[in-house]
Design brief:
The complex is a heterodimer of chains A (350) and B (376). With 350 residues, chain A is of the alpha/beta class. Chain A is 35% helix and 17% strand. Chain A contains 11 helices and 12 strands. The chains are: A alpha/beta (350), B alpha/beta (376).
């Protein structure tokens, strides 16, 4: 099975070969490194930019204006904050020009904690991203979804933020991408060797066309007692929590939202109507968190169908993620937190 | 009515020229001298008489439009005015020299909000600009969504003008990369032209533009220009900059730089023409600083009243009159005709409807794909 980073790399290759991608660029994105997490190794259109995040986003906008297709990378989302006005411009380009200039660009950036990245390599960006109208925002939790969402993002005529959960980038999936070879063969084909890479060239497997439509969530575990909605790094934790609670006889339905904007309200609504209880989990900071928007909507539209107050479990409202494991784990949701919150919602008597 | 008056003014000029020729005056050099090196005096004879008259005409046309926009604001028919009266001697030559068209095979224009002279020279009509400042539904640039002078013309590669004063310098890198790619394939390619003020050059995006466009083997066909009017809103140049000239900063990157008198349309014409030729031939950037006047302040926020400063139109008119290219009163005649036209068009636009409130969700996404979360 491919890792998420391999899946992203293969989707980008599909983009440059078949979908008209002209430029895949960012800091250390080109040879020899091929990206801080190797997501761009071996790609023909990958190139290194200056270490200039504003330059990267503005260049992406310029390429979009010229009608080219690009995928730009900000090496860690912690460094995207000085580009926020440019992201705003990319998001309002079509609207401000009254429909005359669209912005077909993809910006990808690793997000979240889980690699002991300390203060400037552990931020989340999903809540910030959902405050950038005009953008679509996606975050996969599996390699298969990463592949399908990246293909959809490249095809989309609107700007798409592709958030990469960095703690999951090396995790292998449980589902094959159509046409994906076995693990060892894939590694020999698309992973650059250690050491001298000057003569290395990737051999790309012939993958079929596979897309995950933006805006479509996925029920990864069915249940009837409570719904938990998550995405990215916290999604597999929710699945694990659901499995452990199942041993206690509790049936938890787990939704992988996959797209934050637009989001799959129909899936959330139908699930909450069935269970009457819901928990939203993500690792961005908790004040004005995207999960709060979803909880608000559940409250407004499904209030009389609820058996318990909707809850949001998110990262603590701290200015950073501390390096020591004690600090990091106390700052963002982990398995025990999720189980505890699920139990609280399940225990509530209407 | 207006057309008749302008046509009459132009006809008078033609008649004068013919009479002069008949009287034995030497015919002036025409477009053939375009590539001639300008002399220190920037002699008028470097351009043909029709070119000079056209330049004067467009400068007046642009100024009258800007003054009309200010009047529209002061009459309460607009919420805000911002623009660039005083920059006609830079903007008009630029508009005349640009390779106008759509896509990277033509020039891209990453303009700031002082570009009315350039747009007028490219052929923008008064009604377009007046619809924009009055935020009417008919406004072709933004559909009533943005301020005066925030133009957008995809058919001419005029990408949307924004209010931030620096972001255009970064975006020009992207279109420049696209154009370089065409050039490397030996296909027709344009230049990415970016304009901005001296205050905008204090932002980091200006440095990004210099850095990205001058990387060895990756040089970009960028025409980086600064219209230095010595002000950033209310802050003088001396409080913002330590460098003598903004253009000096290009030297560190091996970029060809120039500082020119942006109040002289002949000097700017030949400077822009030479710069664009150099960029196209060498696929390398040029940074040129045009020293210009700011005649009505920063915007309506500071009153939009006439201020002191060299007026490029008055200066150019005097040269044309002194050299007997036009008769005294020619500019006044043009001015009157354009003023009448602008007033009549304002009346038309005033009667037009604004955008409907239920259009706010239009164009958030392509093809009006739903962007309203209430409808997800």
């Amino acid at each position: 099975m491919a890792t998420m980073v391999q899946a992203i790399r293969m989707a980008l290759h599909h983009g440059e070969k078949n979908l008209g991608v002209t430029d895949i660029f960012g800091e250390d994105v080109g040879a020899p490194l091929g990206g801080a997490f190797t997501a761009t190794q071996g790609l023909e259109t990958a190139w290194n930019s200056p270490l200039d995040e504003r330059g990267i986003i503005s260049t992406a906008i310029g390429l979009g204006l010229a009608g080219d297709r690009c995928v730009a990378e900000i090496q860690f989302c912690d460094y995207i904050f000085n580009t926020v006005d440019l992201l705003k411009i990319a998001g309002n380009m079509l609207w401000t020009s009254n429909g005359q200039y669209n912005m077909p660009i993809v910006v990808m950036t690793p997000v979240g904690a889980g690699i002991r990245g300390s203060v400037y390599h552990s931020h989340s960006f999903d809540s910030w991203a959902t405050r950038l109208p005009g953008w679509k925002v996606v975050m996969p939790s599996t390699p298969l979804d990463a592949y399908g969402l990246m293909v959809s993002a490249i095809k989309d005529p609107n700007p798409v933020l592709f958030l990469k959960p960095k703690a999951l980038l090396r995790v292998r999936g449980e589902e094959l991408i159509p046409g994906e070879p076995d693990e060892k063969t894939l590694k020999s084909m698309i992973d650059a060797p250690i050491g001298d890479r000057s003569k290395w060239k990737a051999r790309w497997p012939d993958l079929g066309e596979f897309e995950i439509p933006i805006g479509q969530g996925k029920i990864v575990r069915e249940g009837v007692d409570i719904t938990v909605v998550s995405y990215g790094r916290t999604l597999p934790l929710c699945v694990k929590a659901a499995a452990e609670l199942a041993e206690q006889g509790r049936s938890v339905e787990v939704i992988d939202l996959r797209s934050m904007y637009p989001y799959d309200w129909a899936m959330i609504r139908d699930s909450v109507r069935k269970t009457g209880r819901v928990l939203f989990v993500n690792e961005d900071t908790e004040v004005t968190n995207f999960g709060e928007h979803l909880a608000y909507r559940v409250t407004q539209e499904l209030f009389y169908e609820l058996q318990a107050r909707p809850r949001v479990l998110a990262g603590k409202n701290l200015p950073g993620i501390g390096l020591h494991p004690n600090l990091e784990e106390a700052s963002v949701p982990h398995l025990e937190d999720i189980k505890h919150e699920l139990e609280l919602v399940l225990a509530e008597v209407p | 009515m207006r057309q008749t008056q302008v046509a009459k003014a132009k006809a008078n000029v033609k008649a004068d020229a013919k009479a002069k020729l008949a009287a034995g005056s030497k015919p002036r050099a025409k477009i053939a001298v375009k590539t001639a090196k300008p002399t220190k005096e920037r002699a008028l004879t470097l351009l043909s008489k029709p070119q000079l008259v056209n330049m004067m005409d467009l400068m007046v046309k642009s100024r009258v439009l800007e003054e009309r926009l200010i009047k529209i604001y002061k009459a309460g028919d607009a919420f805000f005015w911002i623009g660039g009266p005083g920059e006609e001697a830079f903007g008009v030559p630029l508009g005349l020299l640009v390779d106008k068209g759509q896509g990277p095979s033509h020039d891209y224009l990453h303009l700031h909000y002082r570009a009315t002279p350039t747009l007028v020279a490219m052929g923008m009509s008064y009604i377009d600009s007046i619809r924009l400042i009055m935020n009417r539904a008919t406004d072709p640039s933004t559909g009533g969504r943005n301020f005066a002078n925030h133009y957008c013309y995809p058919q001419w590669n005029v990408v949307p003008v924004g209010s931030p004063i620096e972001v255009q310098y970064g975006m020009a890198i992207g279109t420049g990369i696209s154009q370089r790619r065409l050039k490397m394939k030996k296909q027709k390619s344009g230049v990415s032209i970016v304009t901005g003020g001296d205050a905008g050059s204090a932002e980091g995006d200006f440095a990004s533009c210099l850095i990205w466009s001058s990387r060895p083997e990756k040089e970009l066909p960028l025409y980086i220009t600064v219209q230095n009017n010595k002000w950033g809103i209310s802050t003088p140049y001396s409080e913002q900059h330590g460098e003598k000239n903004v253009a000096d900063r290009g030297k560190a990157f091996g970029i060809r730089t120039n500082v020119v008198n942006g109040n002289d349309p002949i000097e700017t014409y030949f400077q822009i023409q030479g710069d664009l030729e150099y960029i196209k031939k060498n696929t390398r950037p040029v940074l040129t600083e045009f020293q210009v006047s700011r005649l009505y302040g920063h915007s309506s926020a500071s009153g939009a009243n006439r201020e002191n400063g060299d007026d490029p139109i008055e200066l150019f008119e005097k040269r044309l009159v002194d050299s007997k290219f036009v008769k005294p009163g020619f500019v006044k005649e043009l001015w009157t005709a354009y003023d009448t036209e602008s007033r009549q068009i304002s009346d038309i636009v005033r009667a037009e409807a604004g955008p409907l409130s239920d259009t706010i969700w239009d164009h958030v996404y392509v093809d009006n794909e739903n962007a309203d979360w209430r409808k997800f």
